[in-house]
Amino acid sequence: MIKSLKIFLMGVGTLLWMTACQDALTEHPDSYYEKEDFFTSEAKAEMGVIGIYNVLPTLYGDSEMAFGASDDTYYASGTNTDNARRDIAHYMLSTTNKYVEAVWQATYQGIERANYMIEGIQEMQGFAENEKLQSLVAEAKFLRAFLSFNLVKYWGDVPYKTTSTGSYEEAYQPRTSREVIYDQIVDDLDDAKENMSWANEASSPERATQGAARALLMRVLLQRAGYSLQMDGTMTRPEEELRQTYFAKVIDEWEAFQENGYHDFYEGGYEALFKSFSAGELKSFSAGELHSKESIFEVAFYTVDGRTGARGYWGTYNGPLVAAPGIEATETDKFMGRANALFRVIPEWRDFFEESDVRRDVMICTYQYDWDKTLYNHVKKDNIRNKKNWYPGKWRREWMPLGYKDPNITDVNYCSLRYADVVLMAAEAYNETGETAQAWKLLNRVRQRAGATKITSANYASLMKSPKVYDLPFIEDGDEAGRFRTALYWERGFELAFELQRRFDLLRWGVLGDALQLMASKTVVNQSAEKSFLAGYNFVSGKHELFPIPLDEIQVNYCLENKNNPNY
C-alpha cells in the first residue's frame, strides 16, 4: 500500500482523470489507458482509486470551510455579499452561489469516479480470489460513502446512482430519497469495514482503513437518527424504534474500536496534536509516517510549487491573521507566509472554558502577526481587547515550518475523522439508549485529556449552566439524560470546533436555528451598529437547513422538474 498520498496527488489527477463534465453525473475518464486495458493490473487499479482521493482536496481546500459555517462558534469576516463564503456563512444564499456549485460538481465527480472504479475492478480477472483488489474496491466504496453522505447532509434528496455513466441519457436522474441513499452508504461502509485492515503504527491516515469506515458509519447513523429538512418544508426524524436501532449500531462500532485497541488519544496531548497537524510532524518512533492513532482519516494536501497539485488553505483562511512578508523573492525559505484569516471566532466561547482546559487557547487565538519593516520580520500583536479580531486557532502559520512556496498556500492536511469524536459519538449513543452512566464516563475521558473538570451530578450546574455558559431553553435538562445532552452540546463545541461537524450536530439535534439566534443575541460582536455575526438574524427555518441545488443543475436536469429545495 502507498504510505502517503501527498506525492501522488501532484500528478494522478492529470494522469488518470482528464475530464469534461457535461452534467453533474457525467464524467468521461480519458486516461493513458482505454477502459478495456485499464483494469489489467493491481498497480493500475490502485492508481485509479487514488484518482478518487484526488477530488477531496478540491472540496476541502477552501469551499467546505464555508459549508461548516456559520454554526455558533465561528463565522466569515465581512458582511457584504460575495456569492461565495460570506453568503453561505451569513445565510444569504442564492441558487447561483459559486461555492455551492463547485461543491456540488466536485462531489458528483468523485462519486462517478468511485462508481467507475468499483465496476471496473470487480470485473477484473481473479477478483473473487484477490484480497488486494477486494481491498481497493472497499476503499472506493468508503470514498463513495464519504461523498454520498455529504450529498445527503447538504442537499437532502438528490439525483443519485451507483453505476458509472455510459451515455448522455444516463446523466439525468430524478431525486432519490435520502433514506435510499443512506441505505447505500451503510451498505458501502459495511462492505468497506469487512475488506479493509485496521490502522497500525505503519499506517498513514491519508488512506482509508477499517477504523475510518467504522467511524464514518457512526457519524452517518447519528445524523440519520436526527432531524432533517424534508421536501415539504418540515423538520422530521425517524420513529423512536428505528432511532434506537441506529444508536445500537453506533455502540456496535464503538465496541469494535475497543476490541481492536489501536486508536486512542494522541500521546502528546491536545495542543501538541494540533501543532502536529500544522507542522506536518512525523511520528518520532517511525520516521516517514503521519500519526494515525487519533487521526483516523485525513484529506491530504501537497504542492511542489504552490501553483499545482493539492493546494491547501488550512491555517491561512481559517487561522490567525499574518501579514504578507515584505521580503525578497529569494528569501521565502526564512519567513512565514501570509494568512488571510477569512473567518472569526465567536469570542464568548473563551469564557465558557475552565482556566485549566487546554483546549481554550487552541480553539481561540487572540493575536495576529504584523510585518515590521524596521525589524524585517513578523511581530505578534495582542488583540485581547478587540474581540472582533479573534480567530479560530487550531491551525496556525506560526506552527508550520518556516518557508513557503506560495504565501497563501499550505500543505496542512484536514483531519476529517479523529478518535475524540468517536468517543463522543459513542457517548451520545449510550445516552440515547438509556445507559447514561456509561455516556458520562466516555465524555469525561475527553475532558480528562483536556485538563477539564470531570462532570458529575454535584457540579453539573456550575459547569453547564449560567453564568459559566448560556442556559439552553431549547434543551430540556430536567433528568439525567437531558443533563447529558446539555453537556454534550457544549463538549462537542469545546472539542471539535471548526472541524466542520458542529453545524450538522446542531441540525440533527433540531436546534440549529435556536443556537444561532441565542449566540447572535448575546455576542459582543453584535453589540454595535455594525453587526458581524449575522447568521442568527438571517437563518430561516424550513429553508437553511439545506443548501440550494445549483440553478444550472435545475435548468439542465429536466428530471428535477424545475423544483429546488424548500423555499429556494
Topology:
Blueprint: H1 8-16, H2 35-38, H3 42-53, H4 56-60, H5 63-67, E1 74-76, H6 85-89, H7 98-122, H8 131-155, E2 158-159, E3 175-176, H9 178-195, H10 210-225, E4 228-229, E5 235-236, H11 240-260, H12 270-279, E6 295-299, E7 343-345, H13 349-352, H14 360-363, E8 364-365, E9 367-372, E10 377-382, E11 391-392, E12 414-418, H15 419-432, H16 436-450, H17 460-464, H18 480-496, H19 502-508, H20 512-522, H21 535-538, H22 551-556
List its salient traits.
globular; mainly alpha; two-stranded antiparallel ribbon; 568 residues; 12 strands; 22 helices
Mean pLDDT over the full residue set: 92
Instruction: Sum up the overall morphology in one term.
Output: globular
Order of strands, widest sheet: 1-7
Distance between the termini: 45 Å
| Portion of residues within helices | 40-55%
Count of helical regions: 22
List segments where confidence is low: pLDDT < 50 over at least 5 consecutive residues: 10-33, 282-289
Largest sheet: 2 strands, antiparallel
Secondary structure tally: strands? 12
Structural class of the secondary structure composition? mainly alpha
Strand-residue proportion? 5-15%
Radius of gyration: 23 Å
